[in-house]
Amino acid sequence: MLTFVLRRLLGALPVLLAVSLFVFGFVRLLPGDPARLVAGADATEQEVASAREVLGLDRPIWEQYLRYAGATVRGDFGISSRTREPVFEVIAVRFWPTFWLTLAAMGWATLIGTAIGVWAGAKRGRWQDQAVMLAAIGGLSFPGFWLGLLLINLFSVHLGWLPTGGFDGWSSLIMPSFTLGLGVAAILARFTRSAFVDVSGEDFVRTARSKGLRERRVIWRHAVRNALIPVVTLTGLEFGTLLGGAIVVETVFAWPGLGRLLVDSIAFRDYPVIQALILLLSAEFVLINLVVDVLYGVLNPAIRLRS
Amino acid sequence: MTAAPLRSPAREFWRRFRRRHTALLAAAIIALVILLALFAPFIAPYDPTAADYDALLQGPTLAHLAGTDSYGRDILSRIIWGGRISLAVGLISALAGGIVGTIMGLVSGWSGGWVDALLMRICDVLFAFPGLLLAIAVVALLGPGVENVIWAVAIFSVPVFARLTRGSTLALKQTQYVQAARAIGVSRHKLILHHILPGALPAVIVYMSLRIGSAILVGAALSFIGLGAQPPSSEWGAMLADGRSYLGVADHLTIFPGLAIFIVVLCFNVLGDGLRDALNQKLQ
């Protein structure tokens, strides 16, 4: 088990390295003087000069990268060219809103997705199954930002029940998290249904049924428990989808999170913040994948032994 | 017991696909939308960028079937013209990403060894970015605009197709007919093109259809947050961003462009599902 985890950890390292190289090269790939870009459009000559010195642009490229990597590990991402605050602090305040948003969205997604997935699987081939699968493909095709606008229009503008945006108490969390979670709920529903149908054909389910257990017990105690193993993994992987989706949903609901920070920073060409956000979000995604991989190995010994 | 009649793969596909009425309907709607986009200058009732200050923010009327926006521009005409952009984003990026990814997968699966290891590591890195984030990173680098959105979406489609095709290639390499062809000295070039590719193609086609749908969604999302098509473009996501300021005042501004995106993406997804069933592919 330990070697399995170590092997996976080592496998993730080159990916993280490549991501950091990409982010490091990011500003240097842009046309124009990187120092001016980092210092900001309205920077004085002196600020540009100090940015050049901070970036160490006069030094050899490998030394620049080592300095960059070292600073990153210490949590030093430079200074925002928009607010002149340390990037770390700019990002830190935005972290929790996005954390709660994605967590609540995942709550909706697993709740709705697995429940209707199991229901459709249990009613396989009947109209309930077809209705759920139709709804799921509709959910997959629904533009999140459109859903957000429709919800705001109904519940905020017309009914006045919920705030239109911002992060202010749990009621402000309902619409953004539902909007973000719906697409993942649809993916999970489809996946859960097919996992459930696969498991339903297994011998142990037939045995449970033939020894006279009630259908409800067969479904929940025997089929669902086994069907959910692959669903757990997929749920982990879909966190990445949520991180991406959050960028759009946060824009719709004026949510003070990382996604909107990224969009605003792109609009203002605040490259230090853009760099740090891309690095952090990618690293987060790599880490989640790693955890999912390990979790899968724990749940399914066959995978662990094969590698 | 009589043996099932032997049909060519294409005929067998059509026999199965024909029975999937929803998929056929989706294909028909897609064809219609493509025609509307191609012949937009002849079909759209108004100039999509022409302002009419006598008809601002009108709801649907006989003169303007989908109403007008804050400049008095006809929404229906804008949606018809905007279809060109959304379809271009979806089709070009999925095709480009699909072709590059398929070639990568074929080479990777066939060659094995260090070539395989290198190409798959590249895919790992591309996979390390959540799709939309990678697209945004590319746009942040190249600057906003539709062309850059197409590039961005194409790039993040590559690893998906590469992995998919590599898997099929590895499986097909072991089949008897490929082994036999190899044994009688068929060239590598011919082996891959005539024996491996046809076997790998069904999965690629199915995924392509699903991918076009998600590419259109990503393109619209990027335009919505201001990184894709710029005003006065009538890209559907950009139109939604316009309509946002008039929620509760002129709801048709947010309803119709959103409906257009939803219907087109839904059709590509339904078509993809139908193709998957008809081609007997097991994909998630």
H/E element sequence of chain A:
HHHHHHHHHHHHH
First-last Cα distance of chain A: 11 Å
Radius of gyration of chain A: 24 Å
The fraction of residues assigned to DSSP E strands of chain A is under 5%
List the chains of the largest interface with their residue counts: A-B, 43 and 40 residues
* Averaged pLDDT of chain A: 81
Shape by Cα distribution of chain A: flat
Secondary-structure element order of chain B, as H and E? HHHHHHHHHHH
Quickly count the helices of chain B: 11
Blueprint of the fold:
The complex is a heterodimer of chains A (307) and B (284).
Chain A: H1 2-29, H2 34-39, H3 45-55, H4 61-73, H5 87-122, H6 127-141, H7 144-158, H8 171-200, H9 203-210, H10 215-252, H11 258-267, H12 271-299, H13 301-306
Chain B: H1 9-17, H2 21-38, H3 40-43, H4 75-111, H5 113-127, H6 131-142, H7 146-173, H8 176-183, H9 188-224, H10 236-243, H11 252-278
